[in-house]
Structures are given as structure tokens and as C-alpha cells.
Design a protein that fits this description.
globular
Length: 255
């Protein structure tokens, strides 16, 4: 599993979303590398880890990353947020603080979680992935950008990044969609031993701000922040605001 290390300062692990890679954080990383030693992960089957034989399973991936990085802040966007949250729950000695960007402990709707998405959305993407690989990825990127005040810019940036390091593994993409559909990490939130920051985009159509706010309220020491005009990838269109929130959160952590 590829982990690019750059910058200086306290360690910060950064985990990307479905079909992407660590390079999607390029602009945010440029803002943060003078403050943190960044550990930019390419998840198994994605980016420069496309040929990794590590299974795209939350505990497997979290354990591998924890073994290869010092105790750190963990930042996860979308699918990457599930990995970060799993690490916080299972490997708390490795996680000083959690920063979740447009990432919910449960992505799909349930009777006690009305803020989630219809599970059929992820089932449909999984079905279409086998028929038209590139079109399915592009449709997912469009869903990520949909609703943002800067949707055109956001989809352009996502499209520019997605295939920079080659095509992600079809098998791992299917596994990632299954994680988005089936994972529920809400039960562990009240017992989290580290502070957490939940950054939502007001116009996100994939992970609702209400889900993020509800998750922050369930967490033992959770803080909620909403980027007013942001979509699902606010670090692309509101990078200064996201970077400032990360710095403030880091500075407030216990030494």
C-alpha cells in the first residue's frame, strides 16, 4: 500500500474517497505541509496501490496504516472516513484525533438513521460497474459534485485526478461500494477516546450535513463544522476554510 510522506511537524494521515487516491488532496496538502508531516495513503486497489494484494477491508487497512505510521491525526474523506473511524475505534493508541470530511459512520438510510442515502444508490453503482467501468466512475464523481455552488470546478478537479495513476481495480471498487452500503460504525462513537471534528458541506448530496451533525453529537468529544457553500469535496473548493479548521482542531488537542 503506497504511503507518500511529505512536510514537517506532527503526523497527519490523509485517506481519500472511492475511486480516487492521495493525490486528490494535492491543494490541501500544499496548505498543510508546513504544519504537519503528511502521510498520503493510496488505499488498496486505488492510485499507486492498484496492484496491492491487501484486502479493502476496514480493519485490515486500518491495521496496516497504523503499523506504518507514528501516532497521528487521521483525516478521512468519504470512504476514507470509514477507515479513519475504524482506526480510532480499534487502534486508539495510533490516533491522536479524528477529522472526518463528508464521511458518516453509516452511509445508508435506516429506521433510526433517516439522514442516510437510499441503499439502492450503491447497489446500482455496483451493478453498473460491471457493465461500464469508466461511465460508472464518472457518474459517481458527478454525484459527489452535485449540489455544490462550485459543482463545475469540483467535477473538473475530480476528473483530472481520478486516472492520474492508472485505473483503480474493478474488484476493489466493488469492495469499496460494499463498504459504503453495509458499514455501520455508530455503536463505537460514544466510546471514542480522542476528539473528533466532523466537517460537512451544506450542499453535499452524498453525505448529508444532518448525518455529520448527528455523528458528531454521538461521539464522545465530537465537534461539527459545516462549510456553507461546500459540496461533497469541500477541500477542493474551500481549501482555505478546511485547512484553517484542521489547524485549529490540531492546536486544541491535548499535548
Amino acid at each position: 500500500m503506497q504511503i507518500v510522506v511529505r512536510g514537517r511537524g506532527p503526523a497527519l494521515v490523509m485517506l481519500h474517497g472511492w475511486a480516487m487516491h492521495g493525490g486528490v488532496f494535492a491543494a490541501l496538502a500544499a496548505r498543510l505541509e508546513q504544519h504537519f508531516t503528511l502521510h498520503l495513503v493510496d488505499l488498496p486497489g486505488h492510485g499507486r496501490s492498484a496492484d496491492s494484494d491487501i484486502a479493502l477491508e476496514l480493519d485490515v487497512v486500518a491495521r496496516h496504516i497504523a503499523a506504518r505510521t507514528p501516532p497521528a491525526l487521521w483525516l478521512g474523506w468519504s470512504l476514507g472516513g470509514l477507515v479513519a473511524l475504524q482506526a480510532g475505534q480499534r487502534y486508539p493508541a495510533s490516533v491522536r484525533g479524528l477529522m472526518m470530511i463528508c464521511a458518516s459512520p453509516r452511509f445508508v438510510r435506516a429506521g433510526d438513521w433517516p439522514q442516510g442515502m437510499d441503499a439502492n444508490v450503491f447497489r446500482d453503482f455496483a451493478d453498473e460497474l460491471a457493465r461500464d467501468y469508466r461511465a460508472t466512475i464518472d457518474r459517481f464523481l458527478m454525484l459527489e459534485a452535485y449540489g455544490s455552488d462550485h459543482a463545475r470546478e469540483e467535477i473538473r478537479l475530480l476528473r483530472e485526478q481520478v486516472f492520474v495513476h492508472g485505473q483503480p481495480s474493478r474488484q476493489r471498487l466493488g469492495e469499496g461500494l460494499a463498504l459504503l452500503q453495509d458499514t455501520d460504525l455508530r455503536a463505537g462513537l460514544p466510546a471514542l477516546s480522542m476528539p473528533s471534528l466532523w466537517i460537512a458541506g451544506r450542499r453535499d448530496r452524498l453525505v448529508s450535513p444532518q448525518a455529520m451533525q448527528a455523528a458528531a453529537a454521538l461521539a464522545a468529544d465530537g465537534e461539527y463544522l459545516c462549510i456553507e457553500h461546500g459540496g461533497h469535496a469541500p477541500f477542493l473548493t474551500h481549501g482555505d476554510a478546511v485547512a484553517e479548521a484542521i489547524l485549529q482542531f490540531s492546536e486544541a488537542l491535548p499535548a
